[in-house]
Amino acid sequence: MTKDTEILKVREKYNQLISAHGTRLVFQWIPGHAYIAGNVKADILAKKGAQQQQPCKPVTYTTARQITNHNYRENWVNMWAMGQTGRVVYKYMNSLKTNDNIRTISRKEQVTIFRLGTQHAPLNYHLNRINPQHPPMCPLCNDNDQFETTDHLLLHCPNLDDLRQDLLPPTPDTTNILYSTTDQLKNTSSSTTWQWTEEQTLTGCWIKEEEEEYIKSKKA
Q1: What is the pLDDT of residues 28-37, one digit of tens each?
Q2: Which residue ranges does the record assign to the RNase H type-1 domain (predicted)?
Q3: d(Cα 176, Cα 184) in Å, to the nearest integer?
Q4: Among 32, 89, 95, 121, which residue has the fewest nearby CB atoms (within 10 Å)?
């Protein structure tokens, strides 16, 4: 573990304590071996012992599995914290949450929520990044400068206001739509219907069946 990673973990724990308990923490540097008799010698002996071959001590399968899982989770958290990808998600999920509500919904619903959260959903703006010839504009808006992004789809498209009133919180934002309760995650996922042509390009948006005719008329 690098010093930068250790500092980052301390900072995360500090923020968690402040948020959960409103605790005021003070960091005080204490010299470990400053002219204290015996400390320097003890430190030398400890390092010498650590460099020697350690005795093999058998452990149970359960213990070995727990150690392996702990090390794997720690390595994953470190790579996630220090990585360069997924930063749009990291600010909402900066630690491993075993009780995350996304675990309580179906695999299909999880895929939808994850795609929306990472902004890799099959929306025109993302498809345009893959294929520059694909128009990035929202098919429901008359404004040719309005891109069909995840935020636009979920929060701003005026033609979807009625769906937001039915399926989203009164004041929707990314947190209470994509990182919320089980029921809200289901609502967000079930309200997202994708219609694909034979060329596998998006022709629909966030819709209900009764609005399909409206969308077809907008595209005519």
Answers
A1: 776 666 667 7
A2: 1-51
A3: 8
A4: 32
